[in-house]
């Protein structure tokens, strides 16, 4: 835990929190003046007692009071409380309260992601799994499944042209009118990512070269990560890879990257493009989470159920892409992607 920080995600949603969240530092230091506010608090001195009307499930109890869901799990062997509270999900002000033991036991990232997805949809924008660069005032959006070369393609394009603006490499926001909004998060650069040493902090170059050598073996990389929790990736701030970070831009082109075969390109109809991008987003930014589903069921607010959130996201995507040319790129490497996008 740390001092309370306020993030303003453009002018759509403000997030106040005293814990670390996967929100770009570029949004920190906000005024908290957005119409929709999410408060996320980790509290050590909170230990709610289930009332008589609490319902019991296999591993926990839960109860609803108004628009507030409280979930209480058995305490840890050291008697630390394990609890979560969600209030006002789907309203202009949403509050999440949890204990450190709940975070350690269940994690909080998926809950925050789902709540943020709902709040942004209420503001008329959708989180999508995509990166974007800006040329001549218009956004070129690159989307795919994970580890398909999206970040490598964006980094290569940025390295080749100082005139390109950067919006994000993995997540962007989009509204129904086709405006793209940046999500300039720190880049997680894996050993196989196409990044020049000049784009890395000087003190990290030697370490990165060693990691690249080890990273040539996907099996060894996976073993180090899952067995010893050794992550070979490097973190780069957006300013290290781009001359300019762009806040928003109208959508110009969309490319769906689909590697592993001979280079070719085909145009996708709006319905096909929407389905492809929505599916890739669902794989990486899935709002499905047990506690959010429990809230939707127990509170009777099905509008915030993850299945409904996905439909709402898909509707925004469909409207945004209605007049946009979307091309699917098949390629056997990043160079073919770059050539097609260039």
Automatic annotation (TrEMBL):
Domain of life: Archaea
Protein name per its UniProtKB record: Serine kinase
Organism: Halapricum desulfuricans
Phylogenetic classification of the source organism: Archaea, Methanobacteriati, Methanobacteriota, Stenosarchaea group, Halobacteria
């Amino acid at each position: 835990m740390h001092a309370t920080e306020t993030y303003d995600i453009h002018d759509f949603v403000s997030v106040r929190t005293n814990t670390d969240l996967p929100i770009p530092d570029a949004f920190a230091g906000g005024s908290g003046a957005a119409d929709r506010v999410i408060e996320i608090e980790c509290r050590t001195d909170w230990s709610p007692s289930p009332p008589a009307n609490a319902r019991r499930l296999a591993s926990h109890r839960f109860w609803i009071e108004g628009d507030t869901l409280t979930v209480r799990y058995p305490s840890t062997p050291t008697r630390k409380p394990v609890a979560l509270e969600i209030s006002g999900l789907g309203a202009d002000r949403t509050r999440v309260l949890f204990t450190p033991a709940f975070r350690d036991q269940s994690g909080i990232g998926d809950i925050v992601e789902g709540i943020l997805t709902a709040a942004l949809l209420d503001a008329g924008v959708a989180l999508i799994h995509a990166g974007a660069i800006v040329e001549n005032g218009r956004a070129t959006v690159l989307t795919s499944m994970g580890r398909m070369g999206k970040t490598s393609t964006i980094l290569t394009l940025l390295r080749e042209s100082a005139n390109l603006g950067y919006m994000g490499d993995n997540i962007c926001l989009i509204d129904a009118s086709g405006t793209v909004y940046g999500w300039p998060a720190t880049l997680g650069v894996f050993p196989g990512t196409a990044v020049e040493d000049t784009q890395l902090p000087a003190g990290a170059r030697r370490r990165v070269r060693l990691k690249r050598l080890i990273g040539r073996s996907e099996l060894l990389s996976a073993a180090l990560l899952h067995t010893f929790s050794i992550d070979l990736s490097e973190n780069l701030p957006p300013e290290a890879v781009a001359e300019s970070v762009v806040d928003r831009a109208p959508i110009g082109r969309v490319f769906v990257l689909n590697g592993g075969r001979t280079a070719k390109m085909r145009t996708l109809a709006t319905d096909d493009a929407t389905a492809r991008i929505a599916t890739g987003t669902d794989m990486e930014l899935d709002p499905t989470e047990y506690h959010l589903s429990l809230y939707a069921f127990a509170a009777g607010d099905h509008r915030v159920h993850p299945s409904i959130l996905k439909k709402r996201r898909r509707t925004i995507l469909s409207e945004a892409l209605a007049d946009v040319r979307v091309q699917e790129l098949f390629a056997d490497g990043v160079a073919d992607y770059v050539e097609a996008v260039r």
